[in-house]
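agent> fetching stored inputs for the zinc ion docking request
agent> found them:
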Amino acid sequence: MLNRAIEMQPEIAAWRRELHMNPELQFDTHWTSAFVAEKLKAFGCDEVVTGIGRTGVVGIIKGRSDGGTVIGLRADMDALPMTEVTGLPHASKTPGRMHACGHDGHTAMLLGAARHLCETRNFHGRVAVIFQPAEEGGGGGHEMVLDGMMERFGIGSVYGLHNEPGSAVGSFAIRPGPIMASVDTFAITVTGVGGHAAMPHLTIDPIFIGAQIVSALQGIASRNTDPLESLVITVTQFHAGDAINVIAPTARLIGTTRTLKAPVRAMAEKRIRETAHGIATALGGSVEIDYALSKGYPVTVNHPRETQLALGIAREVAGERNVDADTPPIMGGEDFAFMLESRPGAFIFMGNGDTAYCHHPAYDFNDEAIPYGVSYWVTLAETLLKDKTA
Ligand SMILES: [Zn+2]
Ligand SMILES: [Zn+2]
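agent> prediction call returned; pasting tokens
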């Protein structure tokens, strides 16, 4: 399969670059979704459904014999709200928007696999190619699941892939169990009593209270969490005050938590609430906590059986020594987690070579990696759907 994918590479790279030039954010992937749907129809997909989870697209490809198993292969389509500095000929045409996570590459590779599967149909059952919006916040994968995608198409298992800068092109990395972190976003509004900066005893200073909260939150990871577990609590914003000589009445803190296990995730929320309330009360103020400021992503947990299958495919495509079967988890989040909560499956990393890291303004998806991603998808589908009764 790799040779065929190498033949297809220039055309898929051209799609990738066209997608790269036209980045769209969150659920506003209207042009991208139309691009995908048009290609899937042209390839001869048996069914192309748009508007799933708002702007998601699903293409159904029937094998030589229909009926039986349906597997879902998923790519993400959205870009990030940042300005590209690569200066490449195919750089973003829109300032303030950029494909800085390689979702252009993910979409193009899955399109390439879909074309090959439509042409050859060398499998039994069905392949559902899933293109989701709003991975970078917004929870587009969740919306597609809530929209009934799994039931509607009878999808039995799901597989996802993400490029990984810093790992060699032609390499893969996976692990059973947690592979990416849960992501929650919280906002803490501290209310005190404002007043003259020179008369603090007549006020209740929310900046003083907020500062104690920021410090104390660090104790949740170091004092409440088993040292062998993973928890990150980062306060990313602290807004208060407008004048030099006025103590403001309120302060607002915003932060994010990352964990690799549901019980740690629940503990972090409980302790953040208790800590913020306790400190504010002790210092005479009060807090209001919004623990779901943006859509929280669960831990991305790879299922053991499907991980083993994916591992075998990666080894077949890339060679045994180019596949890491026990890669450490990454504390970033991934909304494929929702699909893995709904169906068994596995998420794998694919080497992007020595490029800038994801979300960096100099990042670019590596087109040299395209044949490996396409081969992975096609080989996975043909292997899992080899037998009529699978
Ligand atoms: Zn990203
Ligand atoms: Zn990404």
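agent> quick read of the result: The pocket of zinc ion (ligand 1) is lined by residues 101, 136, 358-359 (CB under 6 Å).
agent> awaiting further instructions
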